[in-house]
Specification:
Elements: E1 5-8, H1 13-25, E2 32-35, H2 39-47, E3 59-62, E4 65-68, H3 69-79, H4 95-107, H5 109-113
Parallel strand pairs: 1-2
Antiparallel strand pairs: 1-3, 3-4
Length: 131
């Protein structure tokens, strides 16, 4: 894979909303996306030792490197260009503070933001960016 891949939970309202945000603001088409419910997403999660039935994070795979938790989100935002890359300033906050907050939201994402009855599906223009 030559382009970074974001693996996300398409059943989660927050996660699928973030995926749609990325597709809308990634004008260069830098990122590909895969839902954890898809074959591609499940395979990536399993290869990283994450249970796709009970994930605790989204993943950003860039070549042979995989980022998770707040590092993944910050790398995604930096990859979107201006003004979104400015959020990369939050990398100055130590991971020991960022990741517990990320994991708390991830653990409670369905209760806080809701769960879709069906997976979010991209529109025709977005399909080429989905694995």
């Amino acid at each position: 894979m030559t382009r970074p891949v974001i693996v996300f939970d398409a059943m989660c309202v927050l996660c699928s909303g973030h995926a749609q945000f990325v597709l809308r603001h990634d004008r260069a088409g830098h990122f590909l996306l895969a839902s954890m419910q898809s074959e591609a997403g499940t395979a990536i999660y399993r290869s990283l030792g994450i249970d796709p039935a009970n994930p605790d994070t989204l993943i950003l795979v860039e070549g042979d490197r995989a980022l998770r938790d707040s590092d993944a989100v910050l790398a995604i935002w930096r990859g979107l260009g201006w003004p979104w890359r400015a959020a990369g300033v939050f990398a100055i906050v130590p991971r020991a503070l960022r990741d517990p907050a990320y994991r708390w939201v991830a653990r409670h994402r369905y209760r806080l933001f809701g769960r879709r009855e069906t997976c979010w599906l991209p529109n025709a223009a977005q399909r080429s960016r989905i694995l």
